[in-house]
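Supplementary material to the annual report.
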Amino acid sequence: MSAEFSTEVPTLEVRDLQTRFHTRGGVLPVVNGVSFTLDRGKVLGLVGESGSGKSVTGFSIMGLVDPPGVVEGGQVLFQGKDLTQLKPAERRALRGNRIAMIFQDPMATLNPVLRVDTQMMEAVHAHRKVSSAEARQQAANALALMGIPSPNDRLRAYPHQLSGGMRQRVAIAIALLHGPDLIIADEPTTALDVTIQAQILSEMQKLVRETGTSLIWISHDLSVVAGLADDIAVMYAGRIVEHGTVDDVLDHPQHPYTQGLIGSLPSANRRGARLRQIPGMAPNLLQMPAGCAFAPRCARASAACDTLPEMVRPRPEAQAHEVRCFHFGPAPALAEATA
Amino acid sequence: MKAQRSFDEHSIWWRVGADFLHSRVAVAGLVLLALVVLAALAAPWITPQNPYDLMQLDVLDARLHPGTPSSAAGYTYWLGTDGQGRDLYSAIIYGLRISLLVGVGSAAIAAVLGTLVGLLAAYAGGKLDALLMRLVDLLLSFPTILMALMILAYVGKGVGNVVLTLVLLEWAYYARTARGQALVETQREYVEAARGLGLARWRILTGHILPNCLPPLLVIGALQIARAITLEATLSFLGLGVPITEPSLGLLISNGYQYLLSNEYWISFFPGVALLATIVAINLVGDQLRDVLNPRLQK
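Predicted assembly:
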């Protein structure tokens, strides 16, 4: 625990990030006051349903939000420097170099008409002035680092000649080319089958441990995050509703939404019984409730939930555990099970 | 997606080439096109007469039937002669040169220019995009032949001026296609990934998006060459194309037109056949290219 409160500047500190989409129907608060800190060499799992704002949070940190989306407030401190204040060229110099991103669909993130070596060498040359031979060598090394056999053959291949898992390894290798300090991975294993997913997860885990890279792993899959992350932040409708270490959030979930997510995992249910689900639907961002966004779906909601709850520390024994709820507490089903 | 091949023959263009050869008609078109191009390139060596050299023409040999031997030079006019005593076979081969030069030259220049304009419009967006695309709309909404006549009336005759006119008329097709394709490709995830690598926008546009835009542009290019040749022939026929001393196929047809009524069909007929063969060959190749490069038709 004490290491987390060291004097070292954290790799990433996000403070009150606000990203809004100005659509014809109105202004959507897609990311609404997100704050978190990520230390060197740590893995943060950013979890939530589709549309909860987790991907846009990643894009906002990268500075890749396109109109109609605009980052309108908050700070993104990368090694103490506020990225939102940088000029576009300065930001571009960091992107792909110190901060890298891995995308969800490995079929789509590689350019279909360019060979792997063309794409990788271009990525090298974007940030380093080296000879082509050297760039090629670095590309081959990065592929080898991702556990790709005979990297020189793979370099000469076109993306369509590689399998899905191989393509995602190549995409990750491209992200690793410059030894970034921060990697933002946006559901990179969702499109892969579970065995490949497991392999890639273990490669990532090893890399993070060996290189001290910090990692934000965006996912809707709690079971993936459980094995990989140090911390988990659960997002709902643009806000972080629960944040803590993996043990805090998964073993002692305090927010009804987190409990609902965990309860929805098929393995948590009894065989043959109806699968549990969270009643209702994610709120329309155009008509956000003034208070807690989860209140309409929440069994514990009361009149108090009409005002927005602050982040509070529900458990004195877990200093890092925070939850945005007035009625926090263990889940009834879990309480029964442990009682 | 097809089964994985070995890593040595994997270029996308390789696959396109293999698919292209599946159609016999297209291969026939390709062979015909190759013959036409070869004949045009080798013109001085395969023709008995230089039709541009007025000293070699003999007015006494004017309007001879196909197969008549020449009176002085000692060869046979297999395709007859025209009103100036030109050997039509030589004139057709040399005319092919002019027609192909005008067609390929104007299509190539228009392709480069139009693609750049289209990419620029897609890249810049906003007002410049709107301005350029309205200009394209304007150009495409006028009857081509009318525009061509107006431009040629202003700049005057000559091979260079015909190419210029055709470029002015045809860049718009490439611009519209390149812009549309670039806008589609911009939405693809690999562009987002390239931005994530910190590549500059112009670099992404030329290095990543442009190669993905090439297939439709290639198809347009092939068909536009045929169009340009036809248009040049039309303009020459109307008397506004290339000068009479350097007859293209269209001009040869035009020259023979007045003799058609007196049964001297060959002066127009054989250049017409050559023009037809060239256009058909290019269109066959272009059509097959379109089928091969169309992602919707791919297995």
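Chain B has one domain: 23-297.
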